[in-house]
Recover the amino acids of this structure.
């Protein structure tokens, strides 16, 4: 090897080492930045998650983002009120300025700090529940609110669409070690995440992601980049194809004001049959009996009562039992959202009675399971709803009054107000 | 990084992956990240070749087991064992039998429904339906992982042994040739005469250069695949369907047309880059698969730059054995058309893939022979030789319109092509 070749190979080796060193330093730096991003609140200003900050557009909020947001907006001396649940509590159909959780905060006053972590299609055990659980030591005076349908068992933690928040918190060691919940999760481990191959491979893969994120914090790193600086992923629901690179913080909350919608838009006559089937379905399968030949009957029994269909209620009770650790149940408020009177009024008298019964029974079941619960909407008007189930901001204001009263009562019972 | 939603899968299903097996979810899985994070450093730390190769084989088996499952491993175990054993005999007949086994296995697992439903069904509907039903009862839900790649590699192996090459005696080395994890699912299609020496070289020592070059290649591959191609895939799945395409403005349609061409290049070459880079990080050099195909100024050049390991395989084991260009222009064109029809069919069991292959076969035939046309041929050839830009434009237009046949059923491809030249719907 002549000197020129030696110099060339030395230079090449040095270049290779420089590249490797650069890669190592760069990767390490990104991990540190991710770790830092998880500790600061970059979701500002925040009122609720929108389509720009939810999985609909490939934005997967992290536990770090949500807990940092709570720390930045709720003082430790306030009672933390975490709103979870689905689109109803997210305030679909309510403009951001008049969203019900703002009214709730106003009603509760400065002693309480309300954050809205509801997502479309989310269940009792999803993101809000996980955040509240993760903050149980920092905010021991806390109330978690979610909504549910009558006799609907909550999805096992970490198995729904918003699985990712639970598993992230799980691998980061933020959750209570609850053997009852763990057994339920193990039993439902074959449940898969939507869109992934059957047999649990998708869930295993996504658990691997959260396990890796525990080490590298890449989710927080990229979420901060995409939220504050430049969006890196295109999605169908992004506003246009050319400006999708804009930082997500720059997109306005797109929620419309359904109170301004005409009634035939809120209650589309073309959908009447479908909506009525859904409303009827809320209670239809909770009260069944079988005749001599084993066929289901949807009618009252000889004594004039609606017969409870045990399998549905047993499933419901079992789901309630394992949904969250025992110590967190008593500070959890479950709201059962009644359907708009526009549809309820169209039920027969018997069906209305059955519908009412389903809500009453469900509230009782949740309470028997150690939670607090209430239903709402029975005395709401047609104009309080933007569709079958979502309330307008006007209905939201009524809801906020009811919930504030309930929260104050719970706070008193839980001893929060004595401190 | 990874998109997970039913609608995403529904929409992306419109666009098949660029190779027969769905390799879109292997290298960009978190499982693979963890796997590579363990296997690569462990391989580097094991300094002795006697330890490195068994460890690598174990890792490859774990990789194959994870993505194929125990039942999915059976075909490669059976066909691989047979190939290994028949190769050791060095007998021409035994090798031919082994080749036939790979061809039959590939045809059975991948083309049974196509041959029964599409081919036989057109001749006799009832027979086709019966054959399709019989095949359906025997076939697994999906073809064995990477069968298009390992079947071609086994055929190449036995063909070369049959021609006198020394077979791989060491079963461990043969196992690594069969299921070398970087190239298992998306190629490049390896040649054992190059792979085994390179594997042994890697086992003897992996240099800093290897790791650095490999890492850069892997990073480039992920950039192409995850950042560019995956975003383009989403955009195409949204804007690509004809109904949506028809509602768009003319410039937007042409943008989608360009995006389709870019997406397949970045997706497939990105995956090849990751495979080549990972192998290099183990000290192993895999053959190149892409060399700036969209810079080609003729169809011949395009195919010298696009999916090179497949093209050279078809050339060596189909085109040349058929007679290549040795028996006159008509036979040469026929051989070319057969070879390209097979290239098309390799990408999937559907007529539009065959048509795409024939389209390129015809293009290549015209390109290779127009200079020999009487009177106009020579001056046209001289003129084009001095005009690289029109040649480049014509070549790329040809190749990019070809992607419409590749991706869409024929009628839809025709409609999309038509919509590119009219502003109406």
């Amino acid at each position: 090897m002549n000197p020129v070749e030696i110099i060339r190979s030395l230079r090449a080796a040095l270049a290779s080492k420089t590249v490797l060193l650069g890669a190592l330093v760069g990767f390490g730096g990104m991990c540190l930045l991710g770790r830092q991003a998880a500790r600061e609140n970059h979701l500002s200003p925040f009122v609720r998650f929108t389509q720009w900050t939810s999985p609909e557009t490939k934005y997967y909020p992290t536990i770090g983002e949500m807990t940092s947001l709570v720390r930045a907006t709720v003082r430790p001396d306030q009672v933390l009120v975490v709103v979870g649940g689905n689109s109803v509590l997210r305030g679909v159909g309510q403009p951001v300025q008049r969203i019900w959780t703002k009214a709730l905060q106003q009603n509760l006053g400065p002693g309480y700090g309300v954050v809205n972590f509801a997502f479309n299609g989310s269940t009792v055990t999803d993101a809000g529940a996980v955040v509240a659980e993760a903050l149980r030591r920092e905010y021991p005076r806390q109330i978690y609110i979610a909504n549910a349908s009558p006799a609907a068992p909550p999805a096992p933690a970490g198995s729904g669409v918003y699985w990712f928040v639970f598993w992230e918190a799980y691998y980061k060691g933020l959750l209570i070690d609850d053997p009852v919940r763990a057994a339920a999760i193990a039993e439902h481990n074959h449940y898969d995440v939507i869109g992934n191959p059957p047999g649990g491979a998708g869930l295993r893969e996504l658990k691997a992601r959260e396990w890796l994120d525990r080490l590298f914090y890449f989710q927080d790193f990229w979420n901060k980049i995409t939220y504050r600086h430049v969006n890196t992923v295109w999605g169908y629901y992004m506003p246009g194809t050319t400006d999708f690179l804009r930082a997500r913080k720059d997109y306005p909350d797109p929620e419309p004001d359904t109170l301004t919608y005409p009634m035939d838009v809120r209650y589309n006559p073309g959908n009447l049959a479908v909506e009525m089937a859904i409303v009827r379905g809320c209670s239809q399968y909770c009260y069944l009996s079988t005749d001599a030949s084993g066929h289901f009957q949807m009618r009252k029994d000889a004594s004039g009562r609606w017969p409870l269909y045990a399998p549905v209620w047993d499933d419901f009770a079992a789901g309630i039992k394992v949904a969250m650790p025992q110590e967190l149940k008593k500070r959890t408020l479950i709201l059962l959202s009644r359907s708009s009177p526009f549809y309820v009024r169209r039920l027969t008298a018997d069906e209305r009675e059955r519908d009412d019964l389903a809500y009453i029974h469900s509230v009782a079941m949740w309470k028997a399971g150690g939670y607090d619960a209430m239903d709402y909407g029975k005395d709401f008007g047609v104009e309080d709803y933007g569709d079958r189930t979502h309330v307008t901001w006007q209905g939201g204001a009524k809801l906020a009054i009811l919930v504030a009263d309930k929260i104050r009562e719970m706070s008193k019972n839980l001893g929060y107000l004595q401190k | 990084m990874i998109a997970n939603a039913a609608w995403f899968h529904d929409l992306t299903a419109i666009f098949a992956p660029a190779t027969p097996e769905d390799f879109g979810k292997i290298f960009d899985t978190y499982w693979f990240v963890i796997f590579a994070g363990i296997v690569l450093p462990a391989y580097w730390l094991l300094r002795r070749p006697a330890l490195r190769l068994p460890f690598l084989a174990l890792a490859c088996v774990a990789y194959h087991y994870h993505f194929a499952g125990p039942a999915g491993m059976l075909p490669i175990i059976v066909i691989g064992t047979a190939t290994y054993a028949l190769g050791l005999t060095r007998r021409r007949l035994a090798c031919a039998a082994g080749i036939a086994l790979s061809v039959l296995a590939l045809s059975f697992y991948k083309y049974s429904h196509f041959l029964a439903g599409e081919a036989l069904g057109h001749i006799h509907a009832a027979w086709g339906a019966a054959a399709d039903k019989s095949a359906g009862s025997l076939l697994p839900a999906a073809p064995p992982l990477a069968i298009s790649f390992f079947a071609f590699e086994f055929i190449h192996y036995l063909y070369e042994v049959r021609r006198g090459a020394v077979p791989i005696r060491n079963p461990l080395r043969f196992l690594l040739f069969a299921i070398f994890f970087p190239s298992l699912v998306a190629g490049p299609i390896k040649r054992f005469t190059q792979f085994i020496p390179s594997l042994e070289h890697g086992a003897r020592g992996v240099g800093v250069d290897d790791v650095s070059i490999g890492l850069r290649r892997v990073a480039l591959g992920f950039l192409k695949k995850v950042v560019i191609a995956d975003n383009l895939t989403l955009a195409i799945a949204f804007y690509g369907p004809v109904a949506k395409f028809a509602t768009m403005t003319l410039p937007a349609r042409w943008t989608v047309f360009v995006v389709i061409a870019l997406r397949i290049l970045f997706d497939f070459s990105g995956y090849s880059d990751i495979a080549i880079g990972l192998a290099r990080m183990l000290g192993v050099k895999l053959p190149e698969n892409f060399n700036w195909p969209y810079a080609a100024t003729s169809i011949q050049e395009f195919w010298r730059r696009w999916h090179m390991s497949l093209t050279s395989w078809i050339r060596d084991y189909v085109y040349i054995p058929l007679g290549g260009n040795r028996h006159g222009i008509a036979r040469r064109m026929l051989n070319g058309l057969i070879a390209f029809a097979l290239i098309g069919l390799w990408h999937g069991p559907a007529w539009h893939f065959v048509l795409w292959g024939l389209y390129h076969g015809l293009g290549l035939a015209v390109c290779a022979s127009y200079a020999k046309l009487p009177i106009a041929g020579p001056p046209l050839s001289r003129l084009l030789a001095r005009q690289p830009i029109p040649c480049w434009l014509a070549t790329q237009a040809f190749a990019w319109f070809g992607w419409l046949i590749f991706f869409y059923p024929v009628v839809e491809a025709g409609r999309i092509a038509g919509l590119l030249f009219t502003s109406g719907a």
